[in-house]
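Hi there,

I know you've been waiting on this one. I reran it after we fixed the sequence typo, so this is the corrected version. Both the input and the resulting structure follow.
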Amino acid sequence: MRTALIAAALVLVASPALAQAGSSAPLVDPAASKKALDDPNRIVCTREHVVGSNRPQKVCMTIAQRQRLKDDADKLTDPGNRSAGSADDFKGQQPGG
């Protein structure tokens, strides 16, 4: 019991000293860390579920590759980019068939 009180007292006395020691650590430049995150050659790995499997698979791509895939998917699903086709697309086809 007596050692528990002594240990608790030491923790209370030492905690402000530890807090001051932690505050003197160098700060990370937020602009530098943001620049590192925006690097298009940085590789990012994610775990993605594959159709037909219950196990996720690790997929690694660069930021630029992910952005290109996203842009291609957006282009395919953009409603303003769709068309019914021109008359040349339907040449030689039978009506109703």
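Quick highlight: Residues 30-78 form one domain.

Best,
R. S.
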